[in-house]
Design goal:
CATH topology: Double Stranded RNA Binding Domain
Helix content: 25-40%
Number of strands: 4
Radius of gyration: 22 Å
CATH class: Alpha Beta
Largest sheet: 4 strands, mixed
Strand content: 25-35%
Mean pLDDT: 82
Number of domains: 1
Order of helices and strands: EHEEEHH
Distance between the termini: 61 Å
Low-confidence stretches: 106-117
CATH superfamily: Ribosome hibernation promotion factor-like
């Protein structure tokens, strides 16, 4: 699984931040390692350094083999909070996607037909 971190010009894209993001995401998405080919992380400060709440944004895009990408985002007061919450959202979205893919049964398959037994079968 390849993790690509992108920052805008208002976020300090330090090596420490890149290592934090990569270690956090690789640990969180370890069980999807075979299915996810790449996770793109886009970090931005939407108010360009002005003091405001919920101005840090983390957008996560998971590229899954043979499927459409799954995209989530979250706004928070700090970059670390935005990354953690967006990661949780992406995990839930991937769990839902995997659940839908593995549950191919139609509602007709859940109808239970009663077996008719005769009194002779009971003895």
């Amino acid at each position: 699984m390849n993790i690509q971190v992108n920052t805008d010009h208002n976020i300090d894209g330090s090596e420490e931040l890149h290592n934090y993001v990569k270690s956090n995401l690789s640990e969180s998405f370890e069980r999807f390692n075979g299915a996810i080919t790449r996770i793109e992380v886009h970090l931005s400060d939407e108010n360009a350094g002005k003091v405001a709440s919920n101005d840090k944004r983390c957008l996560l895009e998971a590229r899954i083999a043979n499927h459409q990408p799954v995209v989530v985002s979250h706004h928070a007061d700090t970059i670390h909070q935005a990354i953690e919450t967006a990661s949780d959202k992406l995990l839930r979205a991937l769990d839902t996607m995997v659940g839908k893919m593995s549950d191919k049964k139609s509602p007709k398959d859940f109808i239970v037909e009663e077996k008719i037994t005769s009194e002779e079968d009971e003895y």
